[in-house]
């Protein structure tokens, strides 16, 4: 960890420790909340040779839930994938008995934390990286010469059961205004991440990154990544492509064109930088300002997934949602945008027509067909019925109203329903047929 990084950590801890010394004399609260605001200062140590990762994270957390909380729930894939060994958990310097349950780390506060007050939470753990990429393993692995790590920093979340299904996302996390990460590695690595690089040691073994207004901080790393740098077509966004084998020029071209198309319909891309990276396997994955693509993809499929994952920069990164419980709000939207971009809003159906208002566990082997394919086709039907101008205006309004906050399926549908109603189109019969939970 750099000297400046350590100084900032000490300053934050001392300041917030003083604030939290006020007695927290309120009644016990048997609840936690995702309505917390956390900043993260983390050190990530990677040992390529041993295939291990160690993380030390200091989170300064303010309770913004509107009432007292008595525990904090954190999310990390080190639990289900890496055999997490939780070495330490401290609240304002006092050790607490935290529990690792799947992807959740449950941290008791001892004394309830009132609304508006802050604590400093220190967590330390070590874990191993998987050496294969089957299923979700690619999200926590060192395979094909690339490290791919999803959700290494224990992040404020709501408690969610882990779902190993390769489609959809089993976590819900809040936006952090400020994230600093220092990587320490056993050999020089080129790191592609959610954040932007802000410093490095002369020997390349220590690298600092920072990010703002993000829901997670993920990364890929390799000793031999090659890069291609460019800009969005309007020049407002830096784009850097990282790969060992994938065609960087194709990835950059699709990223540039997707940003231009989606910004025109939905509003500005939310970050100054976008990194597009080859990962260790799987298919693809989105992060705020950072996307992964599998080295096994064909050129056609690669282009499609670059566009799909960039669509997630609006529907997941900018506007959050309960991803395991309401995948329509992010996955159906991203799939629709990708198919609209390529002018192909159809697609084969392998499963029966089904409702679109359930969580990822409901659909089993039909999740992709129902939520991605049928969901995108449903949105295309709404666009046709209410008119393109009204449809895009409703989406743009929904994005603007929920910027860096949480929306969801109900909010999204209500935005479309209200806009359609204003021009004399009644979407209720169509919505009721596929969303009985809400209509």
Description:
It is a single chain. The chain is an alpha+beta fold. It folds into 3 domains: 1-222, Immunoglobulin-like (Sandwich); 225-310, 2-Layer Sandwich (Zincin-like); 334-434, no CATH class. The chain has 10 helices and 23 strands. It has helices at residues 3-19, 78-82, 248-266, 299-311, 331-342, 360-363, 367-386, 388-401, 409-422, 428-434; strands at 36-47, 52-63, 69-75, 85-91, 94-95, 99-101, 104-113, 118-128, 140-143, 146-149, 155-156, 179-185, 190-193, 196-200, 206-211, 219-222, 226-231, 238-243, 273-278, 284-287, 290-293, 319-320, 405-406. An 8-stranded mixed sheet has the order 5-4-8-2-1-12-15-14. β20 (284-287) and β21 (290-293) form a beta hairpin. It starts with a helix and ends in a 5-residue tail after the last helix.
How many domain units? 3
Q: What is the CATH third-level topology name of the largest domain? A: Immunoglobulin-like
Helix content: 25-40%
Beta-strand proportion: 25-35%
CATH architecture descriptor text of the largest domain? Sandwich
Largest sheet: 8 strands, mixed
First-residue to last-residue Cα separation: 53 Å
Spatial ordering of strands, largest sheet: 5-4-8-2-1-12-15-14
Low-confidence runs of at least 5 consecutive residues = 1-30
What name goes with the CATH superfamily of the largest domain? tricorn interacting facor f3 domain
Name of the top-level CATH class of the largest domain: Mainly Beta
Alpha carbon gyration radius = 22 Å
Task: Kindly report the oligomeric state of this protein.
Answer: single chain
In total, the number of strands is 23
Mean pLDDT: 92
């Amino acid at each position: 960890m750099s000297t400046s990084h350590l100084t900032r950590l000490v300053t934050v801890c001392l300041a917030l420790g003083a604030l939290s010394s006020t007695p927290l004399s309120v009644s016990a609260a048997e609840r936690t909340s995702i309505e917390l605001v956390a900043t993260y200062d983390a050190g990530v140590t990677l040992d390529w040779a041993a295939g291990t990762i160690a993380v030390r994270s200091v989170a300064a957390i303010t309770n913004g839930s509107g009432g007292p909380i008595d525990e904090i729930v954190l999310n990390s894939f080190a639990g289900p994938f890496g055999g997490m060994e939780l070495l330490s958990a401290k609240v304002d310097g006092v050790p607490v008995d935290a529990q690792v349950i799947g992807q959740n780390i449950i941290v008791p506060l001892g004394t309830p934390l009132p609304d508006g007050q802050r604590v400093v939470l220190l967590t330390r753990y070590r874990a191993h990286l998987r050496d294969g990429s089957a299923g979700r393993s690619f999200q926590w692995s060192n395979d094909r010469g690339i490290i791919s790590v999803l959700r290494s920093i224990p992040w404020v979340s709501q408690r969610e059961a882990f779902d190993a299904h390769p489609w959809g996302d089993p976590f819900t996390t809040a936006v952090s205004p400020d994230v600093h990460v220092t990587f320490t590695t056993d050999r020089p690595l080129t790191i592609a991440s959610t954040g932007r690089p802000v410093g490095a040691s002369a020997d390349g073994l220590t690298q600092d990154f920072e990010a703002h207004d993000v829901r997670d901080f993920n990364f890929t790393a390799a000793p031999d990544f090659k890069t291609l740098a460019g800009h969005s077509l309007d020049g407002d966004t830096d784009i850097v492509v990282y790969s060992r084998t994938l065609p960087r020029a194709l990835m950059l071209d699709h990223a540039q064109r997707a940003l231009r198309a989606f910004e025109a319909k939905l509003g500005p891309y939310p970050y100054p930088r976008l990194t597009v990276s080859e990962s260790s396997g799987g298919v693809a994955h989105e992060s705020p300002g950072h996307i992964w693509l599998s080295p096994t993809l064909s050129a056609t499929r690669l282009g499609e997934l670059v566009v799909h994952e960039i669509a997630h920069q609006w529907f997941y990164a900018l506007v959050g949602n309960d991803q395991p419980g309401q995948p329509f709000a992010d996955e159906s939207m991203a799939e629709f945008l990708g198919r609209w971009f390529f002018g192909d809003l159809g697609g084969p159906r392998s499963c029966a027509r089904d409702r679109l208002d359930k969580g990822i566990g409901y659909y089993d082997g039909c999740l992709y067909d129902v939520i991605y394919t049928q969901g995108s086709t449903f949105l295309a039907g709404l666009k046709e019925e209410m008119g393109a101008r009204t449809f895009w205006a409703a989406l743009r309004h929904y994005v603007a109203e929920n910027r860096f906050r949480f929306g969801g399926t109900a909010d999204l549908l209500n935005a479309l329903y209200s806009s359609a109603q204003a021009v004399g189109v009644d979407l209720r019969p169509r919505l009721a047929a596929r969303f009985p939970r809400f209509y």
